[in-house]
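Q: I have 488 residues here and want to know how they pack in 3D. Can you give me a structure?
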Amino acid sequence: MEVESLRQEVNKLKTEKAALKVKSKLFENFAAMAHTCCRLPSTAEWESVKEALQKTLAFSTDLTGAQMGNLILLDSDGVVTESIQRPDETGPDQCCELNGQVLDEGLAGWVSNHHQVGLITDTFNDDRWLPLPHQPQTIRSVLAVPILKCDELLGILTLIHSQPNHFGSASVEQMKATSDQIALTLENARLYGRLDDSYRSLDKSKQEIEAYSKALNEELEKGRQIQRDFLPQQIPQLPNWDIATYFAPAKQVSGDFYDVFPLPGNNLGIVIADVADKGVGSALYMALVRSLIRVFSGHISLHGFANFSIKNGINKSVTEHSSTADQINALNAVKLTNDYIAHEHGKEGMFATLFFGVINPSSGILAYINAGHEPLFIVNSNGVKKSLEPTGPAVGMMLDMTFEIQQVQMEPGDILIGYTDGVIEALAPNGDFFTRQRLLSIIEQTPSSASDLVERIKTGLSTHIHNAPPSDDITMLAVQRLSLNLVR
């Protein structure tokens, strides 16, 4: 009894050892396949995936004791794309013989239709068996396992043996586990293949975007330089007058601009303007407005080109003997510019706030139109002397708008300071605006010169925004009538 019990215990241990060996082989194979399926299956690496599948097939035949095996792979239409055999087996390419669709008849066709394991214990007694020409007629046992990902058939693993009843339930369960790993490998290979294609497409798109971005930056840089050229290259130098300017676009091109240019009657035209919106569109309008103001004001006529003027739509609240006729005629440019833009480009909905002043340097009289722009200030040693509020709407909004001309006397020592809304709307890191109040607090600190005033405002802005890039275009124009003791 003791010997028999010992013998049974030994047999039990041998069985468990064999089972453990099988499980160990399964684990090793699955680990190898998991490593393979995580690699990107580029064209060069597909051979690695195929090699792993061949090893899996060899492992499956060894594990089940099959004499031969085959693994066919299918695409989403059920077309055979690959026929894999053990590395040590040679034979005709079953992929060619299956020729497109998985067989409608035979065990492979049954598995394809039912998505279930096909087990034939004896081919002599099962009408699902339809041997292919290259298969030996001595086949008696066949096990065909579908490779499934969800409900999609990715392939079929087929094992054969010359003895009936060779494959049992243990073989079925082992091959089911193996087929799950094959399905995971193939699905991951497919997904990584798509990912690889996506990466390649993304990289190509990135290169195209970078090339386009470079070309666009080059064009914008050309636009920036052209716009810079629209600003006066040299400020006219007049006895007893000093002019300071500042221009800082938020982007490569801007809708802000300033201009200083001579006019008929020895007058001086000064402009500061802000076109609605930012970017290329506003920069184009800036160039248009700047050019129209120069043409219609008589600056072009002064340089030998014909010019015309119109007084309709201009209200004068100044006496004829104070502002000269040349000053009044020049300011007609605002009305002409408004009507041209509203008529020709009104559908774009673009407009510009604009201050256009005409200074008589001898008398110090400034005749001006403030077309919806921020108020300009005249400051002297006592602080703000006068605020030049809007005298009409923004330019380009509607046809036949009325613009009122007003005048102010600039005395020696007076400084006129103009700015765009980028100054008072400059943002601090906490979101606070610079505000007109902060601007006025700087203006009222008795600046010594136009340049000094502009520099003080720049310093205040820099402190407020902590040297961050401007959130909006910033433009300033300061004009000072010098005191006699300051004139050299």
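Q: Anything worth noting?
A: The first strand starts at residue 68 and ends at 74. Residues 169-230 form the longest helix (62 residues).
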